Records
---
Amino acid sequence: MPISQSRIVSVLANVSGIIPTAFGVNCLLRPEHALGFFYFQNLRTPGDEQLVTYLMIVYGVRDIFMGVAVWVALYFGARKAAGGILIAVSAVAVADGTVCKMNGFGEWDHWGYAPMVCGLGLVAMGVLD
């Protein structure tokens, strides 16, 4: 059996869908806390507070979408599509880390996740078969 078809790849991909979904739910329910993942908690001013909250909702929906997209692809047996989505998720982690680096620190909180999920995506796509 090719490694891309193994049960462990499916389980790991499902778990990889949980992570962005959980972060997304956190953004919707606790935008102030979620903002801390970017180390921006001290940047809020009273006039900007509503805008920042709205942007965190958009960010949360984006994260939930990423996780659900992985799950839907896996549910319908589209492992290559799930692999492509996981690679895209890794690109989002790189972008998020870059924003943190531009702010001065915290980039590795995001960059550490990117190679793992990208590698899993490549395996799910059958690169190692």
---
Amino acid sequence: MVGVCFLRTTTFFNIARSTSFRTLTTMVNPKCFFEVAAGGKHLGRIEFELRADVVPLTAENFKALCSGEKGYGYKGSKFHRVIPQFMLQGGDFTKGDGTGGKSIYGTLSMANSGANTNGSQFFICTVKTSWLDGKHVVFGTVSKGMDVVYEIEKLGSSNGQPSKDIVIVDCGQINE
């Protein structure tokens, strides 16, 4: 399976020792979805299983940004960087160019570019990326829709600039 990662995310310290973590490990991991379009054409749905049992705060942040429950989130945002044979990057719903983003936790979780800069950006790997081991937290997997991921990948370039606007037209939590 291909993992979903956050850029430059720090590791949570001693999370396994907390009572809340032990409680979460008995819960079902949440699932979320993106409906994606490119150049105005619907490409399909990508579904994710989030590993709340391993990284509960990161999973909760992603889930909340998918559902828009805090009044902001991924809906309407773009995949601003797509590199074939590597990854698709999105989640910058504040600026749209990879320099912005917002976390439900303020400065705790997800993408960052240094201390106290946590945000909402994520990436979906399309190949094995062992050179990133130890540098990024994997917090979920694509459970359905890898065909859509590969269609998005075809719109990428070596410099990361997509050939079309690739938009998350809808997203949310899957309640089973």
